[in-house]
Every structure is written in structure tokens, then in C-alpha cells.
From TrEMBL:
The lineage of its organism: Bacteria, Bacillati, Bacillota, Tissierellia, Tissierellales. This is tRNA N6-adenosine threonylcarbamoyltransferase. Fe cation binds at residues 111, 115, 302. Its cofactor is Fe(2+). NCBIfam families: gcp_kae1 (TIGR00329), T6A_TsaD_YgjD (TIGR03723). Its EC number is 2.3.1.234. It is an enzyme of class 2 (transferase). Keywords: Acyltransferase, Cytoplasm, Iron, Metal-binding, Transferase, tRNA processing. Residues 23-308 form the Gcp-like domain. It is found in: Cytoplasm.
Length: 336
């Protein structure tokens, strides 16, 4: 099955061609980060307009790089949510037009399912069931993957997403958007035990997370230090924050994996690229005899290949969309 996939949920315009959900022939990603950086975050209306401008040429580029034409496409997959409504509409409209013109099935995909499916591309032998932690810019989910199409939501953040917390802390340290990767880099030079930031919800029985208290603790620390005229070592702040955030994420995921007797933990979303998170997971996984998997770095953040993988597995599971498919900006995991 040859899949053409389109992703426009946020600020990446992306189109990919895949065979059977795991083999990527092309994955063209056009990022708008430079455009949004001067605003300190994504401006929805600007994002929609840029998607419209780039869409056609990105699709053509994906076909060219895969060395195929529209005639070779068997199904069209597209992100239907969650995401920015105007941005999603550009992708959905394009996907509908192509599927209709080619007379092939249209498969609307949950973007978060896509982040998880990025792992099927990187790890050719990966099969459900497994325990999964999704840590992206807008979501923090603890998930039990029961099949290729059944993702059971077990825990979530009560306030900020993990990536959002990284970006907000980075901003308070004077770093540009998106700050997650910069915190990661700075942490390598800092002492993670310099400041004892809180580990929210760690001792709690629930599988939920909370990051706004941790973010506030970092802000309070910075304000206090400034008032006292103390020198601030931003590497130490970055490393100490990262260690606190990471510890809660890792411990709760390990706890769920043990409860569900999972032999594999899969990490997904932009923050899955974080080196501190990966190292702590590998260390803890090693101790518990649990295999840890995460996508190759380029597949961690938004891209259409992961959407193509999710579209393929949904198509195989019989989930095909009608042409009245609409965007779902607040689509939850577990809903198609
Ligand atoms: P969602 O998928 O929830 O709609 P999104 O698509 O915007 O959100 P992703 O593209 O999955 O999110 O990830 C972007 C986030 O990942 C940003 O918050 C970014 O700072 C963070 N991020 C990327 N690389 C790293 C890293 N190495 N360390 C920490 N955070 C990172
Ligand atoms: Mg993005
Ligand atoms: Fe995303």
C-alpha cells in the first residue's frame, strides 16, 4: 500500500510517501520556525497562510523525491486534529482534493497517534502491546497501546504539557523559541543537583502529571536570585529543571509498564529527542528489564511520515474517512 500523507497541524508543512506504514520513500518538512520566532511562539493565522503558500510545492517535492506520480498512490492520509483549526483545514482540503481526484480512500488521522506511530518507522519489529509516553509541545499522555489502532489514555497533564514547560522555562532564561532543544544542550554543561526543584505528582497514585508548579518554582528561583543580586548559572538551572521534569515522566511510565507487564516502553513527541530523558529512561529500563524505544530525531517532531504510518494502520483496521471529514482541533487520543 502506497500512502501519501499530509501534516499541517501546527507550524510544519509536511508531505510524505510511505509503503506499508513503515518504509519511508520521502518525508519533506518545511518548518516555519524562523517566521514565528520573532513573536516568541506560533501565530495561528500566519501559520495557515504559510501552509497555503507551500502546500502544492511540498506535495510535488514529496512525489519527486519518492520517484513516483499521483497514479501510484493507494491511499491519502491526513492529520485531522488536534491542532490549529486554520492550519489543519489547509491539509484536510488538500488531502480531500487529491483523494477525490484519484478516487482512492481518504484516512483522517489523530496527530498524537501519528507521534506514536513514528516508532513503527524507526523500529521495524515494534508491535503492540506496549506502554507509551507522549511528550510533545501541546500534550503529555501516558498511553497503553493495545493494538495498532487502539491507544488507551491512562494519564495526562493537568496543566502545561512537558514541551510547553521546557519552552516556558527556556523563555524565562532568555533563550529563543522553541527553547526545549536549548535547555537540553545547556543541561549537558550544568549540574542537575545544583537546585532541588519540586517533582510534582511523583508520589501520587494517579498517572497524571503537572508541570506548571515546576515552571513557577523555576521563575521564583530566578526572581529571588535577581533580587538578592546573586549570580545565576543558567546551565545549572536548565539541568536541575530538566532532571526534575524527566524524573516524574520516567518514573510514572516505568510504573505503568510494570503494572501492565509491558516489556517495551515507547517514547514519542518532540521531547522524546531530549538526551536527559533518553538517558534516564535507558538507565531505569535497564534496571527493570524493560526495552526503551524512541523515534529517530527527525521523526520526534512534526512530520508527515508519522501521519502516513498511522493512516496505513488505520486503513488496515478499516478506519476510512468520508469526504465530509472535518478538522477536530481538540481531538483526544482514543477517538478516531
Ligand atoms: P502537539 O503534537 O502536542 O500538537 P507539537 O507538534 O507542537 O505539539 P512536537 O513537534 O511534538 O510538538 O514537539 C515540539 C516540542 O518539543 C517543543 O516544545 C520543543 O521545545 C520540544 N523539544 C524538541 N526537542 C527537544 C529537546 N531536545 N529537549 C526538550 N524539548 C524538546
Ligand atoms: Mg512545530
Ligand atoms: Fe506534534
Amino acid at each position: 500500500i502506497m500512502t501519501l500523507a499530509i501534516e499541517t497541524s501546527c507550524d510544519e508543512t509536511s508531505c510524505a510517501v510511505l509503503k506499508n506504514g513503515r518504509e519511508v520513500f520521502s518525508n519533506v518538512i518545511s518548518s516555519q520556525i524562523e517566521i514565528h520566532r520573532k513573536f516568541g511562539g506560533v501565530v495561528p493565522e500566519v501559520a495557515s497562510r504559510k501552509h497555503i503558500e507551500s502546500m502544492n510545492s511540498i506535495i510535488q517535492q514529496a512525489l519527486d523525491e519518492a520517484n513516483i506520480t499521483f497514479k501510484d498512490i493507494d491511499i491519502v492520509g491526513v492529520t485531522r486534529g488536534p491542532g490549529l483549526v486554520g492550519a489543519l483545514l489547509v491539509g484536510i482540503s488538500s488531502a480531500k482534493a487529491i483523494a477525490y481526484a484519484l478516487d482512492v480512500p481518504l484516512v483522517g488521522v489523530n496527530h498524537i497517534e501519528g507521534h506514536i506511530c513514528a516508532n513503527y518507522i524507526t523500529h521495524k519489529d515494534l508491535e503492540p502491546p506496549f506502554t507509551c509516553l507522549v511528550v510533545s509541545g501541546g500534550h503529555t499522555y501516558l498511553v497503553q497501546a493495545n493494538s495498532y489502532t487502539d491507544y488507551e489514555l491512562v494519564g495526562r497533564t493537568r496543566d502545561d504539557a512537558a514541551g510547553e514547560a521546557f519552552d516556558k522555562v527556556a523563555r524565562s532564561l532568555g533563550l529563543p523559541y522553541p527553547g526545549g532543544p536549548l535547555i537540553d544542550k545547556l543541561s549537558l554543561e550544568g549540574n542537575s543537583q545544583a537546585i532541588n526543584f519540586p517533582r510534582p505528582c511523583l508520589e501520587e497514585d494517579s498517572y497524571d502529571f503537572s508541570f506548571s508548579g515546576l515552571k513557577t518554582a523555576v521563575l521564583n528561583y530566578l526572581n529571588h536570585a535577581k533580587q538578592m543580586g546573586e549570580e545565576i548559572a543558567i546551565e545549572d538551572v536548565a539541568a536541575s529543571f530538566q532532571a526534575a521534569a524527566t524524573e516524574v515522566l520516567v518514573e510514572k511510565t516505568i510504573r505503568l509498564a510494570i503494572e501492565r507487564k509491558s516489556k517495551t516502553i515507547v517514547v514519542a513527541g518532540g521531547v522524546a529527542a531530549n538526551k536527559g530523558l533518553r538517558n534516564m529512561f535507558l538507565e531505569r529500563g535497564n534496571k527493570e528489564g524493560i526495552d526503551i524505544k524512541y523515534p529517530s530525531t527527525i521523526l520526534c517532531t512534526d512530520n508527515a511520515a508519522m501521519i502516513g504510518s498511522a493512516a496505513y494502520f488505520n486503513y488496515m483496521g478499516g478506519y476510512i474517512s468520508n469526504f465530509d471529514l472535518n478538522v477536530e482541533p481538540n481531538l483526544e487520543l482514543g477517538f478516531k
